[in-house]
Amino acid sequence: MMKTQRRAFLLAGMLCAAGAWMAPGTVSAQAKHAHGGSAARDLGTGAAFDKDGRLWVVTKETEGTDQYVVLRSSTDMGRTWSAGKRIQSAPEPVAASGEARPHIAIGSKGELYISYTSTIARPHIGDIRFVRSLDGGKTFSAPVTVHANRDRTVHSFESMVVDAEGRIFIAWIDGRGAMQAKQQNTPYAGSAVYYAVSKDRGASFQGDYKVADHACECCRIGMSLNHRGTPVVMWRHIFAPNIRDHALAELGVDGKVPEIRRASFDDWAVDACPHHGPSVAFGSDGKRHQVWFSGKEGDPSGALYAVASAGKLGAPVSLGAAQASHADVAVRGKHVAVVWKEFDGTSTAIMARQSDDGGATWMQSEASRTETGSDKPYLIQSPAGIVLIWRTQDEGIRVIPLQRTKA
Questions:
Q1: Which of 116, 123, 119 shows the shortest CA–CA distance to 146?
Q2: What is the value of pTM for the model shown?
Q3: Could you give all domains of the chain from N- to C-terminal order, each with its CATH number?
Q4: Are 202 and 132 contacting, i.e. CB atoms less than 8 angstroms apart?
Q5: How far, in Å, CA of 10 to CA of 1, rounded?
Q6: Per-residue model confidence as pLDDT tens digits over 279-303
Q7: N or C terminus of the chain with fewer C-beta within 10 Å?
Q8: Contact between 207 and 188 (Cβ < 8 Å)
Q9: How far apart are the C-alpha atoms of 250 and 230, rounded to whole Å?
Q10: Is the dihedral of CA 188, 190, 193, 194 positive or negative?
Q11: 365: burial class by Cβ within 10 Å (0-12, 13-18, 19+)?
């Protein structure tokens, strides 16, 4: 790729904005306007299916200067939606643009767990908040702050998973180390990754457990259960002296310091945050599928995909054209799905790359397109398979089942 192209693309990545809510192929007035008065860029949407196939989504709603997280559900793959319910009784700031979105996870008994970042000042200064419903969204607990640390510093870009034992893991980017280093006039690169665990369905959280210092400040955290059911986080790390590649670690239930392993080897030296976090998913065979972004000159670069087997990362593959960005990955059996955004100067497409044989062979297709602002593509699991959730400014939430490439 030409250097001027690369620089333009990198700038676009660093200045990434959010975009975008609907059902496959059609636009209903209900879906189009269901996000209320939210700003066009605050389109970050979290989604999850329960065991009965009901789709639950959480979005940001703005009324005047007040902000809320709103919960809706659909029993027909997004063609129609329930009325929205605010999960907080009082407004508070909600991060739902760029790399940030509220998240929802479903417990084994139908519990609804919702996390979000409440940002009170720039850059990303705020708190990781948590709300639960134990009665199917009829009532909600009062929001609580997940972390014990109450410093006025960075707590942002949270991710959440629930393991087979019903334990809730929430990880986030944390600025306390950087703040302390500044006070002591000592060098410190970036922020840190911390996490907390709930063993009682969200009634309380234990932590704060530090995963690693020197995480990139503005990139989301990839989080998934591996084939053993252990939570794994993947983040953009700052390797000395200033290499912004990726690392990953398994999370212990009781906060045992995990082993940190390098997960990408691009050697991209850049003194800035690319605003492009990774995504990671695991097959039942133990293979790790990951997507990430690298702006380093050369080939491959841009949005990348690779699979790791027996701990060894395979050769990275570039996804799409020069404007490919913000990829996501999901695995179900031998079905592997990778999606990403591509902007052609006029409209934005979500491209899908799918494999039915665990990644040995692939087929590529366009999954959706819009001419307005849009959120990042978001892959989730339904009882029937992998589903793409993509919210656009004009069309709303698009719910697109990703079909296997073979009958």
A1: 116
A2: 0.91
A3: 3-401 (2.120.10.10)
A4: yes
A5: 12
A6: 999 999 999 999 999 999 888 889 9
A7: C
A8: no
A9: 7
A10: positive
A11: exposed
